[in-house]
Amino acid sequence: MKTALLLWFLLLSRAYADVVLPSILASDMVLQQETDVALWGWANPTEKVTVTASWDNRTVSVTGAADATWKIRLRTPKSGGPYSITIQGNNTVLLSNILIGEVWLCSGQSNMALTAAGGVKDAQAELPTAHNPNLRFFKMNRRAAASPQNDVGGNWSICDSVSMKRFSAVGYFFGKKLQAELGVPIGLIDMSWGGSKMDTWLPESLINLYPETRHSGRTMVKTPWAPNVPGVLFNGMVAPITPFAIAGVIWYQGESNRHYAPAYYQLTRLLVESWRGAWQTDFPFYYVQLAPYRYGGKFETALVRENQTRAMAIPKTGMVVTTDLVDNLDDIHPAYKKEVGSRLANWALADTYHQKIDSYKSPQYRSLRIDGNHIWLTFDHAPNGLIARTGVLTEFEIAGADQVFRKARARIKHNTVEVWADSVENPVAVRFAFRDAPEPTLFSTEGLPVIPFRTDDWDLGLVKKE
After folding, report:
1. I need a labelling partner for 51 at 20 to 30 A (CA). Which of 12, 99, 289, 333 fits?
2. Which pTM value belongs to this model?
């Protein structure tokens, strides 16, 4: 018995002394180019850890801290590779086939998580030709936690028909376009959880800052497929990778926050600011507006979309509109994701990488002018004018001071739209595509759908906050 205990102690001591890395630091990974990237892990206290990267063969050393952690920073070169990193302490860890390029985090709920294996049709069509050694995936395990964690499971893989089949389809199409246009390696981190609420993705302490967010956190609907406790996904999945340098974030979420739509703008602002603070980087944040779906609600979906539009006021953000990218209004998961990923990539290419992209912003309502029983609407981001895709404009409603909206007629004049209804003699407000599952036909001439909107700020009759 004593011999067994001694052997167990010796084995435990040896394992404790070995240099250990978090899952996200591994062979086949992509590191952010021209950045002071962090490498970190665990080792025996006072143990000397040396790190040598093959791109410059410089050796950097650090001593294990009293809590058995260590951390160093290396300056990465311009894009390229493959490289290797050797980490030595009481043992040696060799990380091989490392590329230097651009790293993006792909997060949100099921429409970000959905894969070719999960039914995305245009992703399935990509499988035979998916192999791309300059596109790499880190598929993160799902983990909720009551306190911030220092590691989360996952694996890096090279893009091929096997790895791509179970990776975020939106992320894949986004990364594929960036890689083709920029000509540099792209690393993608899939940090998504179907059915997740935004409240769970940001630190719990922030939820109580505003009445709206506090009410949202307290009234999250309990489901069997995702946690409903504020902060637990930040603790379990975000916190472990914040030392890992990234270029930016793409985000697709909101379906699960219809339970209290008035909080969505503040939640988004807190999420963006808290993640930027955790990474200590003012990275870009591009996101997808909710797609049309027959939820059967009142104005919850429309208000989430409205707050998503408001969030574009946050610096270095951008929003993709998807009112035209739904093949079945009774399916909450649109089966085609290529155009979603492409539109996200266009935002990044234009605003982050400063490439010339002719059209990447959807037209947005700017102002109105009332002329008798007609209302004239003007729009931004429609320099070449607007079109009715099917020849007839749909989804316009108009109301007078009685706040009763009626179906309206509309016609286009360059980048303005005239709206009226014979039954409304003195109109004061217009709504466009302001419902769960709109099918609007108003587009820019370049083919981007106009952002749903309303010109009024009237009470929508939704549940009141505490």
Report:
1. 12
2. 0.95
